[in-house]
């Protein structure tokens, strides 16, 4: 069991280097925010187009199949399942009213089994029923006269499964939104190093320095937290392996004994993580790192190149199409 490699989401791809790796982190962050905001108040065609665009970007970047097969396959399967369940679920519009009391409150023993149909009273504003037609004539008209259009609210109906236009639209919204939010973020993390992410966020937050907001400290904290995630996974992996190698008989321990063992494992995990954090802090102090403002380490120089300007131009076109044709009807 290797948690550092078995988790398919959120890992950085070092090799091979694709054209997505060459893009500036700030440009990719703008594209990520566009993918997160564009589905809001968008029609189903636009949402499906975002999913196809993400798949096209992944294929055009020549990312190895072994990398995105598990990620995209899992998310596509889950999104289709969510869409299917939402589509066959009741949409909530055809609500039937049922009276609290029965129509015939008093029943007698001599009352016939088959009651005559209850007469329908005319409304108060038309007591004589002028202009109204009998149910027989209405049924005859409905069966004889064709519908003026081919519009049908119920798209599919088979037994207990009914798919309406509203339920299908809601299923497409939820499924595509689920895939877009997760996979766009995963694709950004897959092609952007943690140091580039921190440097790009710091550069985009630079105007906030006028309001005395510590943007450099925030970027440093983000960098350390991103670098600390693999250490947490490594500690969890080592503790799980240590428990497995001891061949503990969980049935003999019972619920109370099992709880004590896992509490001790969690306690040991916290101790190891605090020790790692103390070691990192000690290493930074030994190297003279007292404040990020005086000891700046620029891992990746941020400079817009021709590829970045092309990506920005495409982004403007993307939002132009969104504002013209992407609105929800």
Automatic annotation (TrEMBL):
The chain crosses the membrane at residues 49-68, 74-93, 170-191, 306-325. It is a multi-pass membrane protein. InterPro entries: ABC/ECF_trnsptr_transmembrane (IPR003339). Its main location: membrane. It is found in: Membrane. It holds the Pfam family CbiQ. Keywords: Membrane, Transmembrane, Transmembrane helix. GO terms for cellular component: plasma membrane. This is ABC-type cobalt transport system, permease component CbiQ. It comes from Oscillatoria acuminata PCC 6304.
């Amino acid at each position: 069991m290797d948690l550092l490699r078995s988790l398919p989401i959120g890992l950085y791809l070092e090799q091979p280097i694709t054209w997505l790796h060459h893009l500036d982190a700030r440009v990719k962050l703008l594209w990520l925010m566009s993918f997160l905001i564009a589905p809001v108040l968008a029609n189903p065609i636009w949402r499906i187009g975002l999913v196809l665009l993400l798949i096209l970007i992944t294929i055009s970047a020549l990312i190895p199949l072994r990398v995105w097969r598990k990620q995209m396959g899992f998310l596509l399967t889950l999104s289709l399942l969510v869409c299917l369940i939402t589509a066959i679920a009741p949409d909530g519009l055809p609500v039937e009213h049922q009276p609290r009391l029965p129509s015939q409150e008093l029943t007698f023993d001599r009352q016939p089994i088959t009651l005559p149909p209850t007469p329908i009273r005319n409304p108060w504003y038309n007591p004589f029923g002028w202009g109204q037609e009998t149910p027989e004539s209405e049924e005859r008209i409905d069966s004889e006269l064709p519908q003026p259009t081919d519009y049908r609210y119920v798209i599919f109906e088979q037994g207990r499964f009914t798919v309406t236009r509203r339920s299908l639209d809601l299923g497409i919204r939820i499924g595509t939104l689920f895939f877009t939010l997760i996979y766009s973020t995963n694709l950004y993390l897959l092609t952007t190093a943690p140091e580039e992410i921190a440097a790009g966020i710091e550069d985009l937050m630079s105007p906030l320095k006028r309001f005395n907001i510590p943007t450099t400290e925030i970027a440093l904290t983000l960098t350390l937290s991103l670098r600390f995630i693999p250490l947490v996974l490594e500690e969890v992996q080592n503790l799980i392996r240590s428990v497995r190698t001891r061949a503990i008989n969980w049935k003999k321990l019972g619920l109370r004994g099992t709880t004590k063992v896992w509490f001790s494992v969690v306690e040991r995990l916290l101790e190891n993580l605090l020790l790692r954090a103390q070691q990192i802090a000690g290493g930074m102090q030994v190297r003279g790192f007292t404040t990020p403002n005086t000891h700046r380490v620029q891992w990746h120089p941020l400079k817009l190149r021709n590829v970045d300007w092309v990506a920005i131009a495409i982004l403007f076109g993307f939002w132009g199409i969104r504002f013209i044709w992407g609105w929800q009807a």
